[in-house]
Fold this protein.
Amino acid sequence: MCAVALKVLTWNVNGIRARSAQVLALLADERPDVVCLQEIKASPEKVPGDLFVAADYHAHWHGQGGYSGVALLLRRERFAETPRFTHPPFDLEHRIVVAEVGTTVFASVYVPNGGKDFAAKMSFLRELDAWAAELAARERRLVLSGDLNVARTDSDVHPVFRAEMIGQLPEERALLESLFARGLVDVGRSVAPDDDRLFTWWAPWRNARARNLGWRLDYVVASRALVGEGTTCVSRRDVGTSDHGPVIALLRGP
């Protein structure tokens, strides 16, 4: 890989079959180098055929049935060799897919919501943190993107929704901070440290999306060496019909 800027796009699509045309249009408009999708809610054979060759991407679809599921796509123009896609041992519900390219590791991740099984969410976050620590020990650069299902601080939740509830609990936030402490940067917050309306998810009621009454649950997280002058990160509230908006970041190239 050359040292030119790296464009990363992450989006919880809430069903790839319902939003395949929207994904393809966004890829054509943005031409990201790395695409991380969550909640695809489809097994690979059910993913619309055009997306397997979407704009010349190496693509790995990791889902089963109508629940959960993630995908990771790497643009062939940027990554000539076909990557090896893998899943860490703590991937029990089709929630993470990884590709290691040289000394850089890319991951698309969908952390459990925790509403039905909070213990499983905490276990996943602990395992994710330990995995990131192991990569740091191996001196690997990490670009981890997806729906982490935790609002990092109160500033990441609209005041009307701030409460002591799952997604905002101190123990969840502590694990998220432990993850960032592995030499990682919350790219969206680093670019806009004082923006208290930097939301990525909106409840499907009270006209919440139009009014930007939301939570920030979707992140691009990257090793410090990949973040610096020229780094950008935006949440696209104007795109698509998922309850999440895509997040697009421009990083330093590895």
In short: The chain has one domain: 6-251. The chain is about 20% helix and 30% strand.
